[in-house]
Amino acid sequence: MGQGRNVVAVDLGAESGRLVLCRWNGSEGTLEEIHRFPNGSQPSGSHLVWDVERLWQEILRGLVKAGAKTGGRIDSVGVDGWGVDYALLDAAGERICHAYCYRDARNVPAMEKAFTKVSRERLYQITGIQFLPFNTLYQLVAHMEEFPVDWERTNRWLTLPEYFQYRLTGVAAAEYTEASTTQMLDVQTRSWSHELTSAFGLSLDKFPPIVQAGTTLGKLRPEVSQEVGLANTQVIAPACHDTGSAVAGIPFPHAELAFISSGTWSLVGTVLLQPVVRGGGKGKAFTNEGGVAGSIRFLQNVIGLWLLQECLRDWNSIGLRLTAADLAAQCLETSPEGPYFHADETEYLAPGNMVERINAGLRKAGFAEEKRPPALAAIIFRSLARRYAEAVEEMKRLSGKSIKRLCIAGGGVKNEALNRLTELVTGIEVVRGPSESTAAGNCAVQIAALEKAVTLDQIQAISAKLSFAPA
After folding, report:
1. Any idea which of 227-231, 261-265, 276-280, 294-298 has the lowest mean pLDDT?
2. Are residues 69 and 169 in the same domain?
3. Complete edge-to-edge strand list for the sheet that includes strand 99-100
4. What is the spatial distance between Cα 252 and Cα 248, in angstroms, rounded to a whole number?
5. Confidence of residue 347 (pLDDT cuts 50, 70, 90)
6. Which of 63, 159, 179, 261 is deepest in the core (most CB within 10 A)?
7. How distant, in Å, are the alpha carbons of 103, 202, 221, 354, 358 from that of 305?
């Protein structure tokens, strides 16, 4: 299938980031996590922001470690991360202001204001993207209203994975899967929407050119190359959106397959070749996000294990010392029948007081409050499984695609209590994908690009040959 390669995936998450080294021998590959670091938003005045400079330094540290493990022989590097958040750059390529977190409170009112300029129905018709208050469009609307001078000074804006690739190479480019999360991309032409940029006063000349996953952006800047000790290393844009990489990392053929990329968020969907823009102007719209090789990830963003993560934060703040793994183990025999709440992402998006907010949801659904951690964890898992089943049924109805298997991938694949409930509630066979599917997909796209065969089948075939080295 090709020659030996060493590639590095930079995988940025809202809770942590890591660098993963893939050694590909031409027919199979092993993945090894070589550097991990914490991440999290932090307050700045009335806003939540990311510590971008610290993330940059961690990326450099990881590349130094990669070079040390391979004698400086790294063929390529690619960066993936969460969607929607962005950096504004001036004419010299310097970042102008904070990189704001998608959980910032400014976004919800900005979305409502946006609908006064362009209707929900028209927005969905153009973009095919689910209405979420943190989509980049609404973030930029909020930013321009509060800090208009920032946008005036902006020469180029980039989402965060693209920003870090820019700092590695000096090349400013928007990768298709990541660009599709902004709700500013025309789903049919797969280019920036002139109608939307004009309606919202967003100068199109500030938008980066769009490239496909697997595009070689260039070599490391000389100063970066010297600092990390790597020569002749290319930067290849993977699916820069982490869910795009996670789906690329699924080792099963996509015919009759749905997926849940399960983690802080749960992305419930399937891979299509063409977008489906029906029934999206109202209610819980499905999203047509970009996929590798020009495919479409037809999915719905569903709140995920963030619910449990926030409850753990509440419980551990009072000294209970619980873990997600322990609670999941105690919930293995949870029945699909029993108390539940409606796991709506908007109601539970903000951090803080999650136990109380879930109990409010239980009361609203007609059930008694539950404060015991194992019992409340079981209710969270049951509620998520019910929400997944709703999303899968609506996905089948809208797409017309037959679904016979449901692949769960990402960190949530380790939660057997949730996996079991998902199979029982959906009535669909659940198969387990890799817990490290994002890193696998990132590396698979890079390898396919190096071998000049960036097709959906080629990427999936490479993903099926990747595995993590034993710890």
Report:
1. 276-280
2. yes
3. 42-44, 47-50, 99-100
4. 10
5. confident
6. 261
7. 16, 35, 38, 12, 13
SS3 103: coil
18 and 125 housed in the same domain: yes
Sole residue written with tokens 């090349």: 171
293 and 413 together in one domain: yes
Any idea what the CATH number is for the domain that residue 298 is in? 3.30.420.40
Q: Do 46 and 133 reside in the same domain of the chain?
A: yes
Q: Which residues have CB under 8 Å from 423's CB, separation 6+?
A: 406, 429, 430
pLDDT the model gives residue 410: 87
Say yes or no: 334 and 239 in one domain: no
What's the length of the chain? 471
Instruction: Tell whether 100 and 217 lie within a shared domain.
Output: yes
HEC sequence for 135-146: CHHHHHHHHHHH
Other CB atoms within 10 Å distance of the CB of residue 401: 18
Q: Please answer whether residues 150 and 95 qualify as being in contact, where contact means their C-beta atoms are separated by less than 8 angstroms.
A: no
Over residues 124-148, the pLDDT tens digits come to: 999 999 888 999 999 999 999 999 9
The token pair at 72 is 């400086």
Domain span at residue 363? 252-433
- The percentage of residues in the chain with a pLDDT greater than 90, rounded to a whole number, is 90
- φ/ψ of residue 21, rounded to 5: -95, 130
Active site members? 242
Q: Are residues 99 and 135 in the same domain?
A: yes
- DSSP 3-state of 106: coil
Same domain for 282 and 202, yes or no, is no
Query: What are the C-alpha distances in Å from 15 to residues 36, 59, 115, 424?
Result: 11, 15, 31, 30
**Token pair 């920036």: residue:** 192
- For range 245-272, the mean pLDDT: 93
β-pair type (191-192, 234-237): unpaired
Structure tokens at 17: 């980031």
H and E: helices and strands count for the chain: 17, 22
Supply 28's token pair: 């199979």
Question: What are the CA-CA distances from residue 266 to residues 152, 157, 299, 313, 411 (Å)?
Answer: 36, 27, 10, 19, 10
Q: Which residues on neighbouring strands pair with residue 257, listed in sequence order?
A: 405
Q: What is the pLDDT of residue 283?
A: 52
> Total domain count for the chain?
2
